[in-house]
Please model this.
Amino acid sequence: MDEHQPAGFFLADYAVFSAMLLVSMGIGLFQALKKRPGKATADDFFTGGRSMPAVPVGLSLCASFMSAVQVLGVPSEASRYGSKFLYMCLGQSISSLLTAYLFLPVFFRLGITSTNQYLKLRFGRGMQLLGSIQFLVATLLYTGIVIYAPALILNQATGLNMWVSLFSTGIICTLYTTLGGMKAVIWTDVFQILVMLAGFVAIFIHGTVLVGGPAMVLEIAQNGSRINFYDFSVDPRQRYSFWSLSVGGASVWLSMYGVNQAQVQRYISCRTEKDAQWALFVNQVGLCLIVSSAATCGIVMFAYYISCDPLKSGIISAPDLYMPYFVLDIFRNYPGFPGLFLACAYSGTLSTASTSINAMAAVTMEDLLKPRLRLVTQKKLILISKGLSFLYGVSCITVAALSSLLDWGVLQASFTVMGVVSGPILGVFILGMFVPATNRRGAFSGFLVGFCVSLWLAVGSTLYPPSEETMGVLPSYTSGCGPSNVTLNNSSSSQEHPSISTVHYPDRQGGLLDFYSLSYLYFGAMATSSVVLVGVIVSYATGPTQRIHIKDGLLWWDLNKTQIEVPSEHRLNVLKDLPQLVPLRDMHKEETTNVGNIESPLTLKVMNSF
Model:
């Protein structure tokens, strides 16, 4: 396909992109201006007053981890590994169900703002601080990579100045998150998820037309082994299979949605527990739409480049550049559409970054500062909260700038950071909620072992990456390439650009080197399993915790015993300010008006209403 020479960006493309950024900024300003400062609290800033509808919260949950890394990475993975990537939707569905019925009820009924407050109630202040610090460090690193990724990739593909895009993205995201709080984040996410879907739909339709229609795309994909839903291989080294995507994928997404502060903070902002569960289900529909759209675009991209794979021929130097190159190629005569794709990629980045900034500020306030600020007024707490959001926004931009020093690929870096932190944390929460015998020593020991396991796997797989054959990369072709194609990013010969952007090693068998070839989707599951196993063994060896010593509401098994419904005549009054279910102990124990060590304004309101 010698004619595939992408053009650059036009004025119309930058106009579309700028309009998206301005709308995002406008939503933040609107949410900030329409608030009534006299009634605002720090809790409102982080949870939206716990009065958000289910649909926008669900779309916000969906947008939170759909960053530019996924917008650019999923089509590339589907193009190289086939349509079996869609089994990721099954893993996501399993995680959503487990989150809705196992983890959400515990967090919602406790009325907490930070998930690490649960760790304090169950295992003490030390575990809370450990969880908080690990979350802050990992989220800061991940968010920096997320901001840096599209700036780097789009700079290589379009010539857009990397530093201009990096700082504009970071500054705008920081400003609307700081000004508007959680409500601004959620409503901006709703807009951004629609932009992402519009971008994918436009790419899919136009790409399909250029290939020759849906039937032609399916025929080419079938002949190229890309229609491979039948892959039920149990080899854990294979990057994607039914089992790695459904089982391993469920573990990865459960750690992100079940106990991750950025997500929990969203669904506890809903009016009721039922609304929060519906928000998770809306989120699942959105996730499947995004992943399906992105993966389908990857299949269309493979069909379009069936005779001249841009990566294998050396036209592009990394898999992450597939999508930008494809968009610039097929829309080279349609100014404005490449700008829509740019807006699509940056929508994901803005959503993820704003989520992380607000979550980091919430954790810092609730876990680290609030215990020392008991006498500070709500007005000052809100100012401190906004200051924290601004500080973390600047920090993320700084990390994004420093990310240029890393020699990792974008996907590898983001998965490595999230894999190291999410698996161990999930294991600790599982021990706390579902294994009553777990004591502090067991939780700390399990956490330490799980963290070491995940870090070991991450470092080992980075130093000794598996071969293409081991990962299951499908064949691609360059028979239709002409010499003029190898011109986009540099003039080196195709021999200098292997099919993936990491160093290649020959296929190995046995030993630790073979163990490092384990699919990255299993990293979190390995860490979580290690935490639970070690935690249970150490707890029983050092003296298990007696169930009577665990406060009500901290075990999932006790939820049905402690939940009651607020009487109908009081429900509307309660829901106006701080909607959540009331633990039974707070209705009948006159000597206490708190959940553990955390005051519950709802409890006081209900007690006073009788």
User: Anything to note?
Assistant: Residues 292 and 558 are 38 Å apart (CA to CA). Strands lie at 563-564, 582-583, 594-595, 598-599. The longest helix spans residues 162-211.
